[in-house]
Amino acid sequence: MARTAVVSGGGTGIGLAVAEHLAAAGDDVILTGRREDVLAAAADKIGKQASYVAADLETVEGAAAVLQHASEHAGRIDVIAAAAGGNTAAKAPADLEGLQRTSWAWTANLRLNVMTAVHLVEGLKPILNDDGRILLFSSIAAYRGSGTGSYGASKAALHPYAIDLSAELGARGITANVIAPGYIEDTEFFGTAMTEQRRTMLIGQTDNKRPGNPGDIAALAAWLASPAAGHVTAQIIQSNGGALAGR
Known about the structure:
Radius of gyration: 17 Å
Distance between the termini: 37 Å
Largest sheet: 7 strands, parallel
Number of domains: 1
CATH class: Alpha Beta
C-alpha cells in the first residue's frame, strides 16, 4: 500500500528533489508552498502520484489548509518533510536601519525557518500514522554561523524540536530527524548572490571537492523516511562533503 508524504517547499530545490525520490519509491506526495504556479509545474513533473496545495506555512491558516487537503486526499499521512525555508536577512526593507533592521531579519528568519516547520508538523500530527517519519531541514550554518546570526540560529532551533518530537512520538514508532546540508547548488537559496570566488571557496572546504546537489539531500531524506530507518531518530545528520566534521 502506498504511503503519503507531505513536502513543504516542494516546488523547487531540495523539497522538489525529496518529493521526486519519494514518488519514485512508490509514495504519493502532497506538495505545498506559497507559489501555486510553481507547485502545479512540480506536480505535473512528478505525475499522477502528486497533488499540491498552495499555503503560507508562516501562518496557522496555511497549516490548516494543508491539513484539510491532506485529510480530503489521503485521510492519513506517513511522512512529513518540512523543507520550506531560506535566508531573509538580506531582504529587509531599505528604510530599516540599526536595531529595527536586525529585529526584522531575526523575526523573518524565525518565521520562515522555524514556524513553517512547526506549523506543518503540529498541524498534521492528528493524521500522522504510527511508524511515521518527520524530517526537518537545518544547515551547516546551525553549527558555524551564517554571518548574520539570524539564519544559523533559526536553523539550529530545529535541532531540539526534533529531539522533543522523537521523545513525544517515539512510542508510536514515529521518528523525527534533522538533515543539515552544506553548500547545495541548483536551488533558489542564493539567488544571484553567489560569486565564483565564494563558490570555489565553499567547494574547497569539502573533502570530496564538489558541491552538493538536491539529489544528495533527497537520497538521504528518502532513506530516513523509509522503514529501514526505524531505529534512527532524534538525530541531526550532516551532508556536506566533509566541509564540517561530524559532531
